[in-house]
Amino acid sequence: MDPHSFIARAEAQRWIGIAEKLLMSHDLVGSKTFAIRACESDPRLEAAEQILAITETLIAAEKPVVGNNGSQQPDYYAILQLVRFVSDTEHIAGQYRRLAILLNPNQNSNNRLVI
């Protein structure tokens, strides 16, 4: 491992630690910012992708949309991280499965931070 990648990995792990602490304190935007920095520094770290999935899902769940009857309801496309009104059911199902795996607390230790 060359020195540059070692330093980048150490920096990314430090940013992931900060992102985890911010996630525990429910600072979703701050946690997402540090997870993005960790991804940019070392894209091979799975923890950064998991924290990004958690924060993006929780942020999207906080922003309701107005439904056809005028009531507030969750924006399911944003929660699934999809473009609005995508019609490909296979793509929707695939994204649901991907997020289900990433957000499963039995498989990913970062998800225990949210509970």
Automatic annotation (TrEMBL):
It comes from the Eukaryota. This is Uncharacterized protein. InterPro entries: Imprinting_Balance_Reg. It comes from Tanacetum coccineum.
